[in-house]
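Render this sequence as a predicted structure.
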Amino acid sequence: MTDITARLPAGLSERIESISSQITARGGRAIDYAIGGIPFLSAASKALPFAYETAEMRREQQDNEREPGEQSLSGWWLRSQDSWHQGAGAKFQESRSEAVASARFFDSQGVDPWTEGELKLLRRMVQATPASTEARCLWTVDNDLYLGVGDSVKKTTIGGGAVTNLHSAAGETFTDVVAGNDRWYGVTNAEIVYSGLVGGGGVSNWPLTNTDPTPSVPPQILWAKHRLWAVSGRHVWVVNVEDVSGTAQAAKYDYPSLDWVYTSIAEGPQCVYLAGYSGAESSIQKITLDTTGDVPTLNAGITTATLPAGERVQRIAVLAGQWLCMVTSRGIRLAAIGADGELQYGPLIVEPTNVVEGAAISSWDRWFWVSLRTSDGQCRTYRLDTAQVFDDGTAAYARDVEIEVTGYVTDLAVSGGRVVAAVSTGAYPSEAPVKYYYQHVTELVTSGFIQFGRVRYRTTEPKIFKFFQVEVEPLSGSIAVDAILPNDTTNRFRIWDVQGTADLDQAALPASLGPQRSMGFKFTLTRAPDPTKGPIVHSYSVKSLPAVKPQRLIQLPLMCYDRETWRTGQEWGSDGFSRDRLAALQAIEDSGDLVLWQDFSSAEPTGRQVRIDKVTFQQISPPPAPRSEVGYGGVVVLVLRSMD
Protein backbone atom coordinates (compact mmCIF):
# COMPACT_ATOMS: atom_id res chain seq x y z
CA MET A 1 0.00 0.00 0.00
CA THR A 2 1.37 3.42 -0.94
CA ASP A 3 2.24 5.73 1.93
CA ILE A 4 0.77 9.07 0.88
CA THR A 5 2.06 11.09 3.80
CA ALA A 6 5.22 13.13 3.70
CA ARG A 7 6.89 15.36 6.23
CA LEU A 8 5.45 18.85 6.14
CA PRO A 9 7.60 21.94 6.65
CA ALA A 10 4.90 23.06 9.14
CA GLY A 11 3.30 20.72 11.68
CA LEU A 12 -0.18 19.25 11.15
CA SER A 13 -2.99 20.04 13.53
CA GLU A 14 -4.52 17.13 15.46
CA ARG A 15 -7.63 17.27 13.25
CA ILE A 16 -5.63 17.01 10.04
CA GLU A 17 -3.47 14.24 11.49
CA SER A 18 -6.62 12.24 12.38
CA ILE A 19 -8.09 12.61 8.88
CA SER A 20 -4.73 11.92 7.20
CA SER A 21 -4.26 8.70 9.14
CA GLN A 22 -7.64 7.44 7.90
CA ILE A 23 -6.69 8.33 4.33
CA THR A 24 -3.48 6.38 4.72
CA ALA A 25 -5.41 3.36 5.91
CA ARG A 26 -7.68 3.54 2.84
CA GLY A 27 -4.79 4.13 0.39
CA GLY A 28 -6.33 7.41 -0.73
CA ARG A 29 -9.42 5.77 -2.23
CA ALA A 30 -11.74 8.40 -0.75
CA ILE A 31 -10.04 11.53 -2.11
CA ASP A 32 -8.58 13.05 -5.28
CA TYR A 33 -5.34 14.66 -4.09
CA ALA A 34 -3.00 14.93 -1.13
CA ILE A 35 -0.50 17.74 -0.49
CA GLY A 36 2.00 16.49 2.02
CA GLY A 37 -0.62 14.08 3.30
CA ILE A 38 -3.36 16.75 3.60
CA PRO A 39 -6.50 15.42 1.87
CA PHE A 40 -8.42 17.35 -0.79
CA LEU A 41 -11.20 16.82 -3.31
CA SER A 42 -10.96 18.35 -6.76
CA ALA A 43 -12.84 21.58 -7.40
CA ALA A 44 -12.12 21.63 -11.13
CA SER A 45 -14.74 23.38 -13.26
CA LYS A 46 -15.02 25.27 -16.49
CA ALA A 47 -14.23 28.48 -14.62
CA LEU A 48 -11.36 26.91 -12.62
CA PRO A 49 -9.81 24.13 -14.71
CA PHE A 50 -7.08 21.76 -13.62
CA ALA A 51 -4.18 22.72 -15.94
CA TYR A 52 -0.52 21.98 -16.76
CA GLU A 53 1.83 24.42 -18.51
CA THR A 54 5.58 24.64 -19.07
CA ALA A 55 7.31 27.21 -16.89
CA GLU A 56 9.26 30.00 -18.55
CA MET A 57 12.91 28.83 -18.85
CA ARG A 58 14.54 32.05 -20.05
CA ARG A 59 13.89 35.37 -18.50
CA GLU A 60 14.98 38.84 -19.53
CA GLN A 61 18.13 39.93 -17.74
CA GLN A 62 20.19 43.08 -17.67
CA ASP A 63 23.83 42.50 -18.61
CA ASN A 64 25.92 43.53 -15.60
CA GLU A 65 28.99 41.37 -16.31
CA ARG A 66 32.44 42.98 -16.42
CA GLU A 67 33.03 41.53 -19.90
CA PRO A 68 29.92 42.39 -21.97
CA GLY A 69 28.63 40.60 -25.01
CA GLU A 70 28.22 36.84 -24.95
CA GLN A 71 25.88 36.58 -21.97
CA SER A 72 23.63 39.27 -23.51
CA LEU A 73 22.60 37.16 -26.49
CA SER A 74 19.11 35.72 -26.43
CA GLY A 75 18.44 32.14 -27.45
CA TRP A 76 21.94 30.76 -27.95
CA TRP A 77 24.54 30.34 -25.25
CA LEU A 78 27.79 31.50 -26.83
CA ARG A 79 31.38 31.11 -25.67
CA SER A 80 34.33 32.32 -27.73
CA GLN A 81 38.06 32.84 -27.35
CA ASP A 82 40.32 35.07 -29.42
CA SER A 83 43.69 34.88 -27.65
CA TRP A 84 45.77 32.31 -25.80
CA HIS A 85 48.82 34.35 -24.78
CA GLN A 86 48.29 33.79 -21.03
CA GLY A 87 49.45 30.21 -21.38
CA ALA A 88 48.43 26.70 -20.42
CA GLY A 89 47.01 25.09 -17.31
CA ALA A 90 43.36 26.25 -17.44
CA LYS A 91 41.10 23.21 -17.11
CA PHE A 92 38.00 25.34 -17.68
CA GLN A 93 37.72 28.31 -19.99
CA GLU A 94 35.75 30.41 -17.50
CA SER A 95 35.75 30.52 -13.73
CA ARG A 96 32.68 29.65 -11.67
CA SER A 97 32.65 33.07 -10.01
CA GLU A 98 32.93 35.56 -12.84
CA ALA A 99 32.67 35.78 -16.61
CA VAL A 100 35.90 37.39 -17.82
CA ALA A 101 37.66 37.05 -21.13
CA SER A 102 40.01 34.08 -20.91
CA ALA A 103 43.34 34.02 -22.74
CA ARG A 104 44.46 30.67 -21.30
CA PHE A 105 44.12 27.09 -22.48
CA PHE A 106 44.69 23.61 -21.06
CA ASP A 107 47.59 22.02 -22.94
CA SER A 108 49.49 22.16 -26.21
CA GLN A 109 52.35 20.67 -28.18
CA GLY A 110 54.10 22.16 -31.18
CA VAL A 111 51.94 25.30 -31.09
CA ASP A 112 52.99 28.93 -30.53
CA PRO A 113 50.28 30.80 -28.56
CA TRP A 114 52.38 33.80 -27.51
CA THR A 115 51.27 36.38 -30.08
CA GLU A 116 48.07 37.96 -28.79
CA GLY A 117 45.12 36.99 -30.98
CA GLU A 118 47.01 34.32 -32.89
CA LEU A 119 47.72 30.58 -32.86
CA LYS A 120 50.33 29.05 -35.13
CA LEU A 121 52.81 26.17 -35.35
CA LEU A 122 56.25 26.40 -33.76
CA ARG A 123 59.41 26.27 -35.83
CA ARG A 124 60.89 22.80 -35.87
CA MET A 125 64.11 21.56 -34.24
CA VAL A 126 66.79 20.29 -36.61
CA GLN A 127 69.75 18.04 -35.83
CA ALA A 128 73.02 19.75 -36.63
CA THR A 129 75.08 18.69 -39.62
CA PRO A 130 77.44 15.74 -39.03
CA ALA A 131 80.54 17.93 -38.85
CA SER A 132 79.31 19.62 -35.66
CA THR A 133 76.70 17.28 -34.36
CA GLU A 134 78.11 16.43 -30.92
CA ALA A 135 77.87 18.56 -27.75
CA ARG A 136 77.37 17.89 -24.04
CA CYS A 137 77.26 21.57 -23.06
CA LEU A 138 76.87 24.71 -25.12
CA TRP A 139 76.78 28.52 -25.04
CA THR A 140 75.65 31.10 -27.58
CA VAL A 141 76.91 34.60 -28.34
CA ASP A 142 74.67 36.03 -31.04
CA ASN A 143 74.93 33.48 -33.87
CA ASP A 144 78.18 31.94 -32.59
CA LEU A 145 77.92 28.61 -30.80
CA TYR A 146 80.48 27.21 -28.34
CA LEU A 147 80.31 23.48 -27.73
CA GLY A 148 81.75 21.19 -25.08
CA VAL A 149 82.40 18.02 -27.08
CA GLY A 150 84.01 15.29 -25.01
CA ASP A 151 87.56 16.48 -24.25
CA SER A 152 87.33 19.51 -26.58
CA VAL A 153 85.82 22.99 -26.84
CA LYS A 154 84.69 23.85 -30.35
CA LYS A 155 83.20 26.89 -32.04
CA THR A 156 80.72 26.97 -34.89
CA THR A 157 77.56 28.86 -35.87
CA ILE A 158 73.94 28.02 -35.06
CA GLY A 159 72.64 25.85 -37.85
CA GLY A 160 76.00 24.37 -38.74
CA GLY A 161 79.00 25.62 -40.61
CA ALA A 162 82.76 25.55 -40.23
CA VAL A 163 83.91 24.05 -36.92
CA THR A 164 86.97 25.38 -35.09
CA ASN A 165 88.62 23.29 -32.39
CA LEU A 166 89.59 25.80 -29.69
CA HIS A 167 91.21 23.34 -27.28
CA SER A 168 91.46 19.66 -26.37
CA ALA A 169 92.15 18.34 -22.85
CA ALA A 170 93.13 14.71 -23.30
CA GLY A 171 91.49 12.31 -20.85
CA GLU A 172 89.04 14.91 -19.54
CA THR A 173 85.41 15.79 -20.35
CA PHE A 174 84.14 19.34 -20.58
CA THR A 175 81.05 19.70 -18.37
CA ASP A 176 80.31 23.42 -18.84
CA VAL A 177 81.34 26.23 -21.17
CA VAL A 178 80.70 30.00 -21.28
CA ALA A 179 81.95 32.73 -23.59
CA GLY A 180 82.00 36.47 -24.12
CA ASN A 181 83.09 38.74 -26.92
CA ASP A 182 86.80 38.10 -26.32
CA ARG A 183 87.37 34.88 -24.39
CA TRP A 184 85.81 31.49 -23.81
CA TYR A 185 85.94 29.48 -20.55
CA GLY A 186 85.36 25.80 -19.90
CA VAL A 187 85.56 23.43 -16.94
CA THR A 188 86.15 19.67 -17.02
CA ASN A 189 85.27 16.72 -14.82
CA ALA A 190 88.88 16.90 -13.57
CA GLU A 191 87.97 20.27 -11.97
CA ILE A 192 90.29 22.26 -14.21
CA VAL A 193 89.19 25.57 -15.76
CA TYR A 194 90.45 26.40 -19.25
CA SER A 195 90.29 29.69 -21.17
CA GLY A 196 91.37 31.09 -24.53
CA LEU A 197 90.58 33.73 -27.12
CA VAL A 198 87.39 33.18 -29.11
CA GLY A 199 89.44 33.42 -32.31
CA GLY A 200 91.76 30.64 -31.18
CA GLY A 201 95.31 30.61 -29.89
CA GLY A 202 97.02 29.91 -26.59
CA VAL A 203 95.00 28.43 -23.72
CA SER A 204 95.43 28.97 -19.97
CA ASN A 205 94.29 26.61 -17.24
CA TRP A 206 93.68 26.86 -13.49
CA PRO A 207 93.16 23.69 -11.39
CA LEU A 208 90.52 23.95 -8.64
CA THR A 209 91.85 22.76 -5.30
CA ASN A 210 89.51 20.10 -3.85
CA THR A 211 90.33 17.14 -1.63
CA ASP A 212 86.73 15.89 -1.32
CA PRO A 213 85.51 12.81 -3.23
CA THR A 214 84.31 13.35 -6.81
CA PRO A 215 80.82 14.95 -6.61
CA SER A 216 77.74 13.47 -8.27
CA VAL A 217 76.97 16.71 -10.14
CA PRO A 218 79.51 17.88 -12.77
CA PRO A 219 81.34 21.17 -12.16
CA GLN A 220 79.64 24.38 -13.35
CA ILE A 221 81.01 27.84 -14.21
CA LEU A 222 79.52 31.30 -14.81
CA TRP A 223 80.87 34.79 -15.42
CA ALA A 224 79.10 37.03 -12.86
CA LYS A 225 79.92 40.30 -11.06
CA HIS A 226 83.03 40.64 -13.27
CA ARG A 227 84.37 37.35 -11.94
CA LEU A 228 84.55 33.78 -13.12
CA TRP A 229 82.70 31.55 -10.63
CA ALA A 230 82.99 27.79 -10.36
CA VAL A 231 81.15 25.27 -8.20
CA SER A 232 81.80 21.58 -7.62
CA GLY A 233 80.54 19.53 -4.72
CA ARG A 234 80.28 21.78 -1.65
CA HIS A 235 82.91 24.28 -2.82
CA VAL A 236 82.68 27.69 -4.48
CA TRP A 237 85.64 29.22 -6.33
CA VAL A 238 86.22 32.66 -7.78
CA VAL A 239 88.89 31.96 -10.39
CA ASN A 240 91.56 34.61 -10.71
CA VAL A 241 91.90 34.67 -14.47
CA GLU A 242 94.86 37.04 -14.14
CA ASP A 243 96.93 34.29 -12.48
CA VAL A 244 99.61 32.54 -14.47
CA SER A 245 98.38 29.44 -16.25
CA GLY A 246 98.57 26.41 -13.99
CA THR A 247 98.05 28.36 -10.73
CA ALA A 248 95.87 26.31 -8.38
CA GLN A 249 92.75 28.07 -7.15
CA ALA A 250 91.65 27.73 -3.53
CA ALA A 251 87.93 27.69 -2.76
CA LYS A 252 86.44 31.00 -1.59
CA TYR A 253 83.58 29.33 0.25
CA ASP A 254 82.96 25.80 1.56
CA TYR A 255 79.52 24.69 2.64
CA PRO A 256 79.75 23.19 6.16
CA SER A 257 77.96 19.93 5.30
CA LEU A 258 80.35 17.49 3.61
CA ASP A 259 77.63 15.93 1.43
CA TRP A 260 76.27 19.24 0.11
CA VAL A 261 76.29 19.53 -3.70
CA TYR A 262 76.07 22.83 -5.58
CA THR A 263 74.14 22.42 -8.82
CA SER A 264 73.84 25.85 -10.46
CA ILE A 265 74.91 29.52 -10.42
CA ALA A 266 73.02 32.69 -11.42
CA GLU A 267 73.83 36.40 -11.27
CA GLY A 268 71.36 38.65 -9.45
CA PRO A 269 71.31 42.45 -9.31
CA GLN A 270 72.91 42.62 -5.83
CA CYS A 271 74.45 39.17 -5.44
CA VAL A 272 75.33 35.82 -6.91
CA TYR A 273 72.88 32.97 -6.29
CA LEU A 274 74.03 29.39 -5.66
CA ALA A 275 71.64 26.43 -5.74
CA GLY A 276 72.29 23.09 -4.11
CA TYR A 277 71.08 20.21 -1.98
CA SER A 278 71.99 17.60 0.59
CA GLY A 279 69.71 14.59 0.94
CA ALA A 280 66.11 15.86 1.27
CA GLU A 281 67.26 19.43 2.02
CA SER A 282 67.65 21.96 -0.79
CA SER A 283 68.06 25.73 -0.88
CA ILE A 284 69.33 28.76 -2.76
CA GLN A 285 72.04 30.89 -1.14
CA LYS A 286 73.20 34.36 -2.04
CA ILE A 287 76.77 35.68 -1.87
CA THR A 288 77.12 39.46 -1.83
CA LEU A 289 80.09 41.74 -2.41
CA ASP A 290 81.48 43.70 0.52
CA THR A 291 82.44 47.10 -0.93
CA THR A 292 83.43 48.82 2.34
CA GLY A 293 87.14 48.45 1.57
CA ASP A 294 89.25 49.43 -1.38
CA VAL A 295 88.93 46.03 -3.02
CA PRO A 296 85.48 44.30 -3.02
CA THR A 297 85.47 41.00 -1.13
CA LEU A 298 82.97 38.18 -0.85
CA ASN A 299 80.67 37.63 2.10
CA ALA A 300 79.68 34.15 3.25
CA GLY A 301 76.66 32.51 1.65
CA ILE A 302 73.26 33.37 3.15
CA THR A 303 70.26 31.10 2.60
CA THR A 304 67.55 33.10 0.85
CA ALA A 305 65.11 30.35 -0.22
CA THR A 306 64.49 26.88 1.20
CA LEU A 307 62.53 24.36 -0.82
CA PRO A 308 60.00 21.88 0.59
CA ALA A 309 61.56 18.70 1.94
CA GLY A 310 62.40 16.23 -0.80
CA GLU A 311 62.36 18.79 -3.62
CA ARG A 312 65.81 19.56 -5.04
CA VAL A 313 66.66 22.71 -6.99
CA GLN A 314 68.91 21.72 -9.89
CA ARG A 315 69.07 24.67 -12.28
CA ILE A 316 68.53 28.41 -11.77
CA ALA A 317 68.65 31.52 -13.98
CA VAL A 318 67.89 35.23 -13.48
CA LEU A 319 66.07 37.47 -15.95
CA ALA A 320 66.15 41.28 -16.01
CA GLY A 321 67.29 41.38 -12.38
CA GLN A 322 63.68 40.86 -11.34
CA TRP A 323 62.87 37.15 -11.62
CA LEU A 324 64.69 33.96 -10.71
CA CYS A 325 63.45 30.74 -12.25
CA MET A 326 64.28 27.48 -10.52
CA VAL A 327 64.10 24.04 -12.12
CA THR A 328 63.60 21.37 -9.49
CA SER A 329 63.14 17.64 -9.17
CA ARG A 330 59.38 18.27 -9.20
CA GLY A 331 58.97 20.96 -11.85
CA ILE A 332 59.33 24.72 -12.28
CA ARG A 333 58.99 27.62 -9.83
CA LEU A 334 59.34 31.39 -10.23
CA ALA A 335 60.74 33.70 -7.55
CA ALA A 336 60.54 37.48 -7.30
CA ILE A 337 63.84 39.16 -6.39
CA GLY A 338 63.56 41.71 -3.60
CA ALA A 339 65.54 44.92 -3.15
CA ASP A 340 68.07 43.14 -0.92
CA GLY A 341 68.31 40.06 -3.12
CA GLU A 342 65.89 38.04 -1.01
CA LEU A 343 63.73 35.57 -2.95
CA GLN A 344 59.97 35.11 -2.67
CA TYR A 345 59.01 32.04 -4.67
CA GLY A 346 55.57 30.81 -5.65
CA PRO A 347 53.97 27.40 -6.11
CA LEU A 348 54.97 24.91 -8.76
CA ILE A 349 53.95 26.29 -12.14
CA VAL A 350 54.57 23.06 -14.04
CA GLU A 351 54.58 19.69 -12.30
CA PRO A 352 54.56 16.83 -14.83
CA THR A 353 53.65 13.49 -13.29
CA ASN A 354 56.71 11.79 -14.78
CA VAL A 355 59.38 14.44 -14.08
CA VAL A 356 62.64 13.10 -12.65
CA GLU A 357 64.83 16.19 -12.48
CA GLY A 358 65.43 19.64 -13.84
CA ALA A 359 67.82 19.34 -16.78
CA ALA A 360 68.55 22.77 -18.25
CA ILE A 361 67.49 26.42 -18.29
CA SER A 362 68.08 29.50 -20.45
CA SER A 363 66.61 32.98 -20.83
CA TRP A 364 66.15 35.59 -23.52
CA ASP A 365 64.09 38.77 -23.75
CA ARG A 366 61.19 38.25 -21.29
CA TRP A 367 61.21 34.45 -21.45
CA PHE A 368 62.63 31.48 -19.60
CA TRP A 369 63.09 28.17 -21.44
CA VAL A 370 63.26 25.13 -19.18
CA SER A 371 63.91 21.46 -19.93
CA LEU A 372 62.93 18.61 -17.61
CA ARG A 373 64.15 15.03 -17.67
CA THR A 374 61.24 12.59 -17.57
CA SER A 375 61.07 8.91 -16.72
CA ASP A 376 59.67 8.10 -20.17
CA GLY A 377 62.49 9.87 -22.02
CA GLN A 378 60.62 12.84 -23.49
CA CYS A 379 62.84 15.76 -24.54
CA ARG A 380 60.29 18.30 -23.32
CA THR A 381 60.88 22.04 -22.98
CA TYR A 382 58.60 24.68 -21.48
CA ARG A 383 58.52 28.44 -21.99
CA LEU A 384 57.57 30.90 -19.23
CA ASP A 385 56.51 34.50 -19.84
CA THR A 386 57.61 36.85 -17.04
CA ALA A 387 55.49 39.64 -18.54
CA GLN A 388 52.46 37.72 -17.29
CA VAL A 389 52.93 36.80 -13.65
CA PHE A 390 49.70 36.09 -11.79
CA ASP A 391 48.66 36.96 -8.25
CA ASP A 392 49.43 33.46 -6.95
CA GLY A 393 53.09 33.70 -7.99
CA THR A 394 52.76 31.55 -11.11
CA ALA A 395 53.39 32.76 -14.65
CA ALA A 396 52.03 32.10 -18.11
CA TYR A 397 53.64 28.95 -19.55
CA ALA A 398 53.31 26.50 -22.41
CA ARG A 399 55.15 23.55 -23.85
CA ASP A 400 57.69 24.73 -26.37
CA VAL A 401 60.09 22.99 -28.74
CA GLU A 402 60.29 19.22 -28.58
CA ILE A 403 62.85 16.88 -30.06
CA GLU A 404 61.38 13.68 -31.36
CA VAL A 405 63.93 11.30 -29.87
CA THR A 406 63.97 9.31 -26.65
CA GLY A 407 66.50 10.85 -24.31
CA TYR A 408 67.10 13.95 -22.22
CA VAL A 409 68.39 17.50 -22.67
CA THR A 410 71.85 18.07 -21.17
CA ASP A 411 72.10 21.80 -21.91
CA LEU A 412 70.02 24.59 -23.41
CA ALA A 413 70.70 28.02 -24.92
CA VAL A 414 68.58 30.65 -26.65
CA SER A 415 69.86 33.32 -29.02
CA GLY A 416 67.63 35.74 -30.88
CA GLY A 417 64.63 33.62 -29.91
CA ARG A 418 66.13 30.47 -31.46
CA VAL A 419 66.52 27.47 -29.18
CA VAL A 420 69.65 25.31 -29.23
CA ALA A 421 69.71 22.10 -27.21
CA ALA A 422 72.22 19.36 -26.46
CA VAL A 423 70.42 16.02 -26.26
CA SER A 424 71.61 12.64 -25.07
CA THR A 425 69.91 9.58 -26.49
CA GLY A 426 71.69 7.21 -24.13
CA ALA A 427 70.49 5.91 -20.79
CA TYR A 428 70.87 8.47 -18.01
CA PRO A 429 73.55 9.43 -17.11
CA SER A 430 75.12 8.68 -20.49
CA GLU A 431 78.78 9.53 -20.95
CA ALA A 432 78.66 9.05 -24.71
CA PRO A 433 78.81 12.19 -26.92
CA VAL A 434 75.39 13.74 -27.37
CA LYS A 435 73.75 15.43 -30.34
CA TYR A 436 72.81 19.07 -30.56
CA TYR A 437 69.74 20.48 -32.24
CA TYR A 438 68.79 24.00 -33.28
CA GLN A 439 65.52 25.72 -34.15
CA HIS A 440 65.02 26.27 -37.87
CA VAL A 441 64.68 29.87 -39.03
CA THR A 442 61.55 29.37 -41.14
CA GLU A 443 60.38 25.73 -41.28
CA LEU A 444 57.52 24.64 -39.04
CA VAL A 445 56.85 21.43 -37.13
CA THR A 446 54.80 18.93 -39.12
CA SER A 447 51.81 19.22 -36.79
CA GLY A 448 50.83 20.33 -33.31
CA PHE A 449 47.79 20.47 -31.07
CA ILE A 450 46.18 22.80 -28.57
CA GLN A 451 43.50 21.70 -26.13
CA PHE A 452 41.32 24.52 -24.83
CA GLY A 453 39.78 24.82 -21.40
CA ARG A 454 36.44 23.09 -21.04
CA VAL A 455 33.36 25.21 -21.72
CA ARG A 456 30.64 24.98 -19.06
CA TYR A 457 29.01 28.45 -19.14
CA ARG A 458 29.62 28.83 -15.40
CA THR A 459 27.09 26.12 -14.57
CA THR A 460 27.21 22.34 -14.28
CA GLU A 461 23.71 21.92 -15.71
CA PRO A 462 23.64 19.92 -18.99
CA LYS A 463 24.03 21.77 -22.28
CA ILE A 464 23.54 20.71 -25.90
CA PHE A 465 26.65 21.84 -27.77
CA LYS A 466 25.48 22.54 -31.33
CA PHE A 467 27.82 24.56 -33.56
CA PHE A 468 31.52 25.44 -33.80
CA GLN A 469 33.04 28.32 -35.76
CA VAL A 470 36.71 29.18 -36.45
CA GLU A 471 38.25 32.43 -37.71
CA VAL A 472 41.53 32.00 -39.60
CA GLU A 473 43.95 33.58 -42.03
CA PRO A 474 43.54 32.20 -45.60
CA LEU A 475 44.15 28.54 -44.85
CA SER A 476 47.53 26.91 -45.37
CA GLY A 477 47.60 23.26 -44.29
CA SER A 478 44.67 21.95 -42.28
CA ILE A 479 42.80 22.28 -39.00
CA ALA A 480 41.05 19.33 -37.35
CA VAL A 481 38.78 19.87 -34.35
CA ASP A 482 37.83 17.30 -31.71
CA ALA A 483 35.16 17.45 -29.02
CA ILE A 484 36.35 16.15 -25.65
CA LEU A 485 33.68 14.85 -23.28
CA PRO A 486 33.94 15.00 -19.47
CA ASN A 487 35.22 11.40 -19.44
CA ASP A 488 38.02 12.49 -21.85
CA THR A 489 36.54 10.62 -24.81
CA THR A 490 37.66 12.36 -28.01
CA ASN A 491 35.33 12.77 -31.01
CA ARG A 492 36.67 14.34 -34.21
CA PHE A 493 33.83 16.13 -35.96
CA ARG A 494 35.44 18.37 -38.58
CA ILE A 495 38.57 18.92 -40.71
CA TRP A 496 39.07 22.12 -42.70
CA ASP A 497 41.67 21.67 -45.45
CA VAL A 498 40.61 23.76 -48.47
CA GLN A 499 43.70 25.84 -49.15
CA GLY A 500 43.31 29.63 -49.28
CA THR A 501 39.91 29.62 -47.57
CA ALA A 502 39.51 32.39 -45.01
CA ASP A 503 35.77 32.03 -44.36
CA LEU A 504 35.46 28.52 -42.88
CA ASP A 505 31.95 27.13 -42.73
CA GLN A 506 30.28 26.50 -39.39
CA ALA A 507 30.69 22.93 -38.11
CA ALA A 508 27.80 21.06 -36.49
CA LEU A 509 28.59 18.86 -33.51
CA PRO A 510 27.21 15.31 -33.71
CA ALA A 511 23.81 14.93 -32.08
CA SER A 512 25.03 11.58 -30.74
CA LEU A 513 27.19 13.43 -28.19
CA GLY A 514 24.01 14.33 -26.32
CA PRO A 515 23.70 16.81 -23.44
CA GLN A 516 26.95 17.38 -21.52
CA ARG A 517 27.78 19.34 -18.39
CA SER A 518 30.96 20.62 -20.04
CA MET A 519 32.88 20.05 -23.23
CA GLY A 520 36.47 20.64 -24.26
CA PHE A 521 37.78 21.25 -27.76
CA LYS A 522 41.10 20.43 -29.36
CA PHE A 523 42.69 21.75 -32.55
CA THR A 524 45.25 19.74 -34.50
CA LEU A 525 47.15 22.06 -36.83
CA THR A 526 49.05 20.53 -39.77
CA ARG A 527 51.43 22.51 -41.93
CA ALA A 528 51.12 22.91 -45.70
CA PRO A 529 53.30 21.04 -48.25
CA ASP A 530 55.47 24.16 -48.13
CA PRO A 531 57.15 23.56 -44.72
CA THR A 532 57.31 27.31 -44.01
CA LYS A 533 53.51 27.71 -44.06
CA GLY A 534 50.79 26.52 -41.71
CA PRO A 535 47.40 27.48 -40.30
CA ILE A 536 47.01 30.73 -38.34
CA VAL A 537 43.96 30.83 -36.07
CA HIS A 538 42.47 34.05 -34.66
CA SER A 539 39.42 32.84 -32.74
CA TYR A 540 36.81 30.15 -32.24
CA SER A 541 33.28 30.18 -30.87
CA VAL A 542 30.83 27.50 -29.76
CA LYS A 543 27.04 27.78 -29.66
CA SER A 544 24.97 25.76 -27.22
CA LEU A 545 21.48 25.41 -25.82
CA PRO A 546 20.47 24.60 -22.24
CA ALA A 547 19.40 20.99 -21.81
CA VAL A 548 17.78 21.37 -18.40
CA LYS A 549 14.48 19.52 -17.95
CA PRO A 550 11.73 22.16 -17.99
CA GLN A 551 9.63 22.74 -14.91
CA ARG A 552 5.83 22.41 -15.06
CA LEU A 553 3.32 24.78 -13.53
CA ILE A 554 0.20 23.00 -12.27
CA GLN A 555 -3.01 24.87 -11.52
CA LEU A 556 -4.87 22.75 -8.97
CA PRO A 557 -8.40 23.81 -7.82
CA LEU A 558 -9.26 22.16 -4.47
CA MET A 559 -12.37 22.05 -2.28
CA CYS A 560 -11.65 23.37 1.19
CA TYR A 561 -14.75 23.14 3.42
CA ASP A 562 -15.26 22.06 6.98
CA ARG A 563 -17.39 19.16 5.80
CA GLU A 564 -17.19 17.45 2.44
CA THR A 565 -18.71 14.35 0.88
CA TRP A 566 -15.92 12.22 -0.43
CA ARG A 567 -16.05 9.81 -3.35
CA THR A 568 -17.00 6.98 -1.04
CA GLY A 569 -20.25 8.82 -0.26
CA GLN A 570 -19.15 9.40 3.30
CA GLU A 571 -19.17 12.86 4.86
CA TRP A 572 -15.88 13.80 6.48
CA GLY A 573 -14.63 16.81 8.34
CA SER A 574 -15.17 18.86 11.45
CA ASP A 575 -15.51 22.45 12.57
CA GLY A 576 -12.29 24.32 11.66
CA PHE A 577 -11.15 21.64 9.20
CA SER A 578 -11.14 24.17 6.32
CA ARG A 579 -9.12 26.78 8.21
CA ASP A 580 -6.60 24.16 9.38
CA ARG A 581 -5.89 22.95 5.86
CA LEU A 582 -5.64 26.48 4.45
CA ALA A 583 -3.25 27.48 7.23
CA ALA A 584 -1.11 24.38 6.56
CA LEU A 585 -0.88 25.19 2.83
CA GLN A 586 0.12 28.77 3.59
CA ALA A 587 2.75 27.58 6.03
CA ILE A 588 4.23 25.34 3.33
CA GLU A 589 4.21 28.25 0.88
CA ASP A 590 5.92 30.50 3.43
CA SER A 591 8.68 27.96 4.06
CA GLY A 592 9.61 27.66 0.38
CA ASP A 593 10.33 23.97 0.97
CA LEU A 594 9.40 21.07 -1.28
CA VAL A 595 6.34 18.96 -0.57
CA LEU A 596 4.92 15.74 -1.98
CA TRP A 597 1.88 16.12 -4.24
CA GLN A 598 -0.12 12.95 -5.02
CA ASP A 599 -2.81 12.49 -7.64
CA PHE A 600 -4.97 9.49 -6.73
CA SER A 601 -6.65 9.39 -10.13
CA SER A 602 -3.41 7.93 -11.54
CA ALA A 603 -2.64 4.23 -11.46
CA GLU A 604 0.48 4.69 -9.34
CA PRO A 605 -0.06 7.69 -7.06
CA THR A 606 3.52 7.75 -5.77
CA GLY A 607 3.56 11.51 -6.15
CA ARG A 608 6.16 14.08 -7.17
CA GLN A 609 8.10 16.79 -5.43
CA VAL A 610 6.63 20.27 -5.96
CA ARG A 611 6.91 23.75 -4.55
CA ILE A 612 3.84 25.86 -3.85
CA ASP A 613 4.25 29.06 -5.87
CA LYS A 614 0.85 30.53 -5.04
CA VAL A 615 -2.13 29.88 -2.75
CA THR A 616 -5.48 31.50 -3.62
CA PHE A 617 -8.58 31.04 -1.40
CA GLN A 618 -11.97 31.95 -2.90
CA GLN A 619 -15.43 32.12 -1.33
CA ILE A 620 -18.46 32.58 -3.56
CA SER A 621 -20.89 33.21 -0.64
CA PRO A 622 -20.58 34.80 2.81
CA PRO A 623 -19.60 32.57 5.76
CA PRO A 624 -22.50 31.28 7.97
CA ALA A 625 -21.94 33.78 10.77
CA PRO A 626 -19.33 36.30 11.80
CA ARG A 627 -16.33 34.73 13.64
CA SER A 628 -17.98 31.33 13.33
CA GLU A 629 -16.02 28.11 13.04
CA VAL A 630 -19.11 26.26 11.77
CA GLY A 631 -19.67 25.66 8.06
CA TYR A 632 -16.67 27.69 6.91
CA GLY A 633 -15.04 26.96 3.51
CA GLY A 634 -14.36 27.81 -0.10
CA VAL A 635 -12.14 26.85 -3.03
CA VAL A 636 -8.35 26.83 -2.84
CA VAL A 637 -6.46 27.30 -6.12
CA LEU A 638 -2.82 26.18 -5.89
CA VAL A 639 -0.10 26.92 -8.40
CA LEU A 640 2.47 24.13 -8.01
CA ARG A 641 5.92 24.06 -9.62
CA SER A 642 7.42 20.66 -10.39
CA MET A 643 10.93 20.29 -8.98
CA ASP A 644 11.84 16.70 -9.90
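Summary. The chain has three domains: 14-56+551-642, 71-121+449-546, 123-444. The helical segments are 14-26, 577-591.
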